[in-house]
Amino acid sequence: MTDWTTADIPSLSGKTAVVTGATGGLGYETAMALAGAGAIVILTGRDDAKGLRAIEGICARFPGALIAYEHLDLANLASVADFAGRFAAGNEQLDLLVNNAGVMALPKRRETEDGFEMQLGTNYLGHYVLTARLLPQLRRATASRVVNLSSLAHRSGVIDFDDLQAKHSYRPWRAYCQSKLAMLMFSLELQRRSDAAGWGVRSMAAHPGFARTDLIANGPGANTVQWRVGRLLQPLFSQSAAEGALPTLFAATSPAAEPGGYYGPNGFYEMKGAPAAAKIMPHAKDFAVAAMLWDVSATLTGISFDEIAAAA
Questions:
Q1: Alpha-carbon distance values, 198 to 132, 255, 259, 310 (Å)
Q2: Which of 124, 126, 264, 276 could be joined to 182 by an S-S link, Cβ 3.0–4.6 Å?
Q3: Strands of the sheet with 262-265, listed across from one edge
């Protein structure tokens, strides 16, 4: 996969993809490349005006792009259910789901519409529910893929079952790291469960390294110590959003991407470079914790993969 680029994406003609958080940054670049390869791409986001601008931008680059925008707020499980219902009504199958949307290092603790800590709820639990609700369409596709966006931050993450929602002690970066560790563990656990149950879904994870996106430049974590350090390091160690999207695109499209794989940049500390297999910290491979997180997620959200699979 040395120097893998968007030119290496195979034809995706006839394939349907959903990309969350696709109105800007990594999600926009991911949707752009998938559309350029011929996929039918559904961009999702919370800001409908930004969604329409994203559609215009992609069509300007690829006039024949088969793209659409749908409203989806991952911090609201009713919105997730509404989107999944609309998708199912118009689509028999789903070939690719890219769980990209996220928020980072919110200075003050906030909650989603369903009472979850905002970072855990948006970055992880919303995507857990979305993936489960789209499981019937994923199963009907041949060799469908789910790509979950994790982060280098997973290395510092801990799944704190005693205070999962950070009600007793909230620290912005600790909550963010937990959410990104959860996304990686979810990806690995989804592959294990797909293999065991015969769902036929291939699950991968990816991270962008140190990518220059609005999430970093203008996010709620701006002007923190970590943000200021990041701004100083940008010239040496960062890459563009388009380059940061390459590991996601590799996981989503390359025949060489392995089920259960994790991909990121191949440079120093995986901050920039061409897509390559990324380092998974040992605690992210703890099967018992992953299984517990899966069960807790089902209890918190009221959504069971097994029940949805059985009903499909």
A1: 15, 20, 13, 12
A2: 124
A3: 66-71, 40-45, 16-19, 96-99, 145-149, 202-206, 262-265, 275-277
Candidate list 28, 176, 262, 263, residue with the active-site label: 176
Handedness of CA 103, 76, 116, 195 (dihedral sign): negative
176 annotated active-site: yes
Question: What Rg value do the Cα atoms of the chain yield, rounded?
Answer: 18
Burial zone of 237 (CB within 10 Å; 0-12 exposed, 13-18 middle, 19+ buried): middle
Biggest CA-to-CA distance, the chain? 52
**Quick one: how far is CA 264 from the chain centroid?**
13
* C-alpha dist (Å) from residue 290 to 13, 55, 74: 35, 37, 21
Classify 150 in phi/psi space as left (phi over 0), alpha (psi -120 to 50) or beta: beta
Scanning the structure block, which residue is given the tokens 């999702």? 44
Query: What is the residue-level pLDDT of the chain in tens, covering all 312 positions?
Result: 568 999 999 999 999 999 999 999 999 999 999 999 999 999 999 999 999 999 999 999 999 999 999 999 999 999 999 999 999 999 999 999 999 999 999 999 999 999 999 999 999 999 999 999 999 999 999 999 999 999 999 999 999 999 999 999 999 999 999 999 999 999 999 999 999 999 999 999 999 999 777 654 334 455 566 556 656 666 666 788 999 999 999 999 999 999 999 999 998 889 999 999 999 999 999 999 999 999 999 999 999 999 999 987
At which residue do the structure tokens 């603790």 appear? 109
